[in-house]
């Protein structure tokens, strides 16, 4: 069934939805919020502990774990902001006012999620690579300093910046109102970039798991030699 629209008294165009649809969206946004709170709080505790204690900051392993925790916490914050923002729009009666792709792209939650979701994916790969190095070249790895950890975390952050810039460049081309104001992630991205966005997260998750296979094989081989 095609979407129906109406002109509001304030001159804006609004998508018409049933109360069941509105209630369903509200429930899903609440779940987003709960997940966001859990992710933000748990990962923030890890990051704060590493920042507070010098002994932890001096260990490369904790810096890398802190980088992953920061990425996951930022992703959770995006979920939380999206939940609060979208529910607020529903309560105000503005959630279905039509916005352009560009307006969705610059909504607070879209800004955070566009960056943090990709960062969380590459951070997983970063952690897996670090574990692989630790078991593959243990003696050399032992000599690595926290500078190595800062470099690998910084590289993860730097890697996601160019694609995000491309995303905003593409979205800027779409200024015609066509999406409801609650703005799901796909609504703020060019379709081609959104396909990359989803695929990137899937690939990084898959690669991070695959990299643990040689880690486990090496650990098993070492344990057989020792015992």
TrEMBL record:
Transmembrane segments in this chain: where? 29-51, 63-85, 105-127, 148-170, 194-219
Q: What is the lineage of its organism?
A: Eukaryota, Metazoa, Ecdysozoa, Nematoda, Chromadorea
Keywords for the protein's UniProt record, in alphabetical order: Membrane, Transmembrane, Transmembrane helix
Annotated Gene Ontology cellular component terms: membrane
PANTHER family, A to Z = G-PROTEIN COUPLED RECEPTORS FAMILY 1 PROFILE DOMAIN-CONTAINING PROTEIN, G-PROTEIN COUPLED RECEPTORS FAMILY 1 PROFILE DOMAIN-CONTAINING PROTEIN-RELATED
- What name does this protein carry? G-protein coupled receptors family 1 profile domain-containing protein
**Record domain G-protein coupled receptors family 1 profile: where:** 42-227
UniProt-annotated location(s): Membrane
Database matches in Pfam families? 7TM_GPCR_Srsx (PF10320)
Q: Which InterPro entries match?
A: 7TM_GPCR_Srsx, 7TM_GPCR_Srsx_nematod, GPCR_Rhodpsn_7TM
Where is this protein chiefly located? membrane
């Amino acid at each position: 069934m095609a979407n129906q629209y109406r002109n509001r008294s304030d001159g804006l165009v609004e998508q018409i939805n049933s109360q069941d649809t509105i209630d369903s969206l509200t429930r899903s946004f609440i779940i987003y919020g709960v997940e966001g709170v859990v992710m933000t709080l748990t990962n923030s505790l890890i990051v704060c502990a590493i920042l507070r204690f010098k002994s932890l900051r001096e260990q490369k392993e904790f810096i890398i774990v802190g980088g992953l925790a920061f990425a996951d916490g930022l992703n959770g914050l995006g979920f939380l902001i999206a939940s609060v923002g979208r529910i607020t729009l529903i309560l105000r009666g503005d959630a279905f006012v039509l916005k352009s792709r560009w307006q969705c792209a610059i909504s607070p939650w879209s800004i955070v999620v566009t960056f943090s979701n990709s960062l969380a994916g590459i951070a997983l790969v970063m952690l897996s690579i670090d574990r692989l190095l630790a078991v593959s070249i243990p003696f050399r790895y032992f000599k690595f300093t926290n500078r190595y950890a800062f470099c690998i975390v910084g590289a993860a952050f730097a890697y996601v910046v160019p694609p995000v810039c491309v995303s905003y460049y593409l979205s800027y081309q779409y200024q015609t109102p066509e999406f409801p104001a609650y703005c799901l992630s796909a609504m703020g991205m060019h379709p081609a970039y959104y396909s990359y966005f989803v695929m990137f997260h899937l690939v990084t998750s898959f690669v991070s798991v695959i990299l643990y296979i040689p880690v486990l094989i090496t650990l098993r081989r070492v344990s057989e030699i020792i015992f």
